[in-house]
Amino acid sequence: QLSAQCRGLWYGDGGFTTLRVVAGAACFWPRHLERLQDLARVLDLQVNWDDLHIALNWVVRHMAHGVVKIILCRDEGGRGYLPPRQEALALVFYWPDATLTCQPDIPLTLPIEAVSLPVPMGWVSPALRGLKTLNRLEQVLLRQALEARHSGEGLCFDHADTLVSGVQSNVFFLRQ
Fold first, then answer.
1. In 8-150, where do the E strands start and end?
2. Which of 3, 13, 63, 150 is most exposed, with minimal Cβ within 10 Å?
3. Is the alpha carbon torsion for 128, 132, 134, 138 positive or negative?
4. Across-strand partners of 14?
């Protein structure tokens, strides 16, 4: 249970990764772990990585297919932006009901239609670039803009007009 005074709720003081589980195994786990370790380093979160591995192994053993969201954040720490010296870390695992998760045997319908969204993403802070922080207000606003355009996905660009990602997906290019 998270405290109502959790710094992750109050200040977005944390981050996450969402991974897919197929046949009881976490897909691309080394990359997800690297993302969480980068987050912990930048935010100076004191994480017990052994505990995280134990908890993740328990979760994936109990599901065949699906998605798991791992959230790391500072828990209670009082008011003010400066984190406490003796922080309490909240480690949250969330996996939706199996009926809501992706199943590997469902074919992807191609092509996927996407629109270009006029609102640039503000991922310009070099300190936070590439981190999935708990502040996802841009994605909330972009998803609302996408809904207003009646489209399934939107392409997001930064202030330099460089493609960053989809609103709710990653974008990959295959050359040759």
1. 14-22, 25-26, 65-74, 89-94, 115-116
2. 150
3. positive
4. 73
Which residues partner with 34 through β-bridges? none
pLDDT averaged over 10-residue windows placed end to end, the chain, 176 residues: 86 92 90 95 92 92 87 87 83 72 54 78 69 83 85 84 83 82
For residue 105, the one-letter residue type is D
Q: What whole-number distance in Å separates Cα of residue 82 and Cα of residue 38?
A: 20
Q: What is the token pair recorded at 132?
A: 């999935």
Backbone angles phi, psi at 14, to 5 degrees: 170, -170
Cα 107 to chain centroid distance, Å, stands at 24
Pairing of strands 65-74, 14-22: antiparallel
In sequence order, what E strands does the chain have?
14-22, 25-26, 65-74, 89-94, 115-116, 154-157, 163-166
